[in-house]
Fold each of these.
Amino acid sequence: MSEIIEINKVAIIGLGLMGGSLGLALRRRPGVRVRGCARRAETRRLALETGVADEVFDNPAEAVRGAQMTVVCTPVNLIAEMAAACIPGLAPGSVVADVGSSKAEVVRRMDALFAGSPADFVGCHPIAGSERQGLDAARADLYRGSLVVITPSALTNPAALRVADDFWAGLGARVCRVAPEEHDRLLAATSHLPHLAAALLAATVGRHAPERVGAFCGSGFWDTTRVAEGDPAMWHDIIQTNRAAVLEELRALQCNLAGLTAAVETGDMETVRRLLAEARAKRRALESATKGLP
């Protein structure tokens, strides 16, 4: 593949929160045209009305024609399917990226799919988003200041990798490179486990009659369970494609919960105090560590 110097046409496959926000951000850049693809006619109409895309299509192969960069912004279980539908229209030397929240399985499937293709695939995960879903939630600054993890494999074209670096950096994101398997271990701890913990907390408190306890839920409850508002179907796919790493984190949480339960049950409040103090210290250490990222 010859290295792309300037990207002036981008195709976005999937126009939800991530794809819609990408379109809004790209269309603020002079000379960049955005071609969007969505199955629903209503989504395509809204994408044009809100300025997410210059043109819209219901056919992925048509959407990507002439694009130097294609970004697949669908749920993880649909990424390979949508990319396969794009291949007949991809230009030689173009780059295809995704925004999936799990990477090892996606990268394996995409590497096999793009073997012999005229285009190159680069796995990407912008750690950005919202508990809100859909095109209505899109915003142009979603990626600015966020961390985009690029997950090359042994088959990733180095020139395509540089294109992906520049593409996300051009949107104001911070970029780092991590192997797909390491990405999944990290995100199981920092994203997938917190989502499941929030869901379990909401379900546990929600076992009580809402009319009895709802008014007593303060900001701590709502802050802690905010991410449980995420799309269940999307999160089902994420957990399914990262089961082993998520299971390891769930077992660690289960171990800590068992220790806390035993301490409360026996009245060992010194252990409770120590756990709370250690948790606060570890949270502060994690927060400080974010300052060391690019």
Note: The radius of gyration is 21 Å.
Amino acid sequence: MNSIPWRVQLSIVAAGYVAVLLLTAVLLYSRHLQYVHNAADAVAAGGMWAGGDLILAVFIGCLFCIPTFLLVLVIRQSEAASMRYAQVILGLSFTMPVSLLVLWATAQGNSFLGWFSFYRVLGSPLFIIGLVFSVLLARFPRARRLILYALVAETGTLMTSVVIFFLTASRH
């Protein structure tokens, strides 16, 4: 039985990411149209609309988990690809402390950087779940170690943000 060539597998993963990006664009545009056409409803029931936005954000995050899972399955075969993936994941995990510092410094300002940082912190639990699966599926020790470092950095920063939240909430 012939297996699918590695380049074809990577092309399928890339096509999965493109499909998720296109679906995300369609979903976000349709949500924008809902805000435009139902502006009075959005103002009257802002909390419900914010809840819908949160559900949409979690759904989009879960959609990105599908091609990422396929990517992890494909790169398990190559140590070089696994190391590259682990290095990228480690770099991405260091955006969490930076985002937390930006949120603290800007006090959740309305700038792009403030919004990006807010959603980066909000998406951290999904990122942690992805890191756990990546550690479990990693075959090579060096790649597994780098992913574990990323998991420690991400989890530690998330726990720090929770502690900061409760400390500032208890002061007010």
Note: The chain has two domains: 1-75, 78-172.
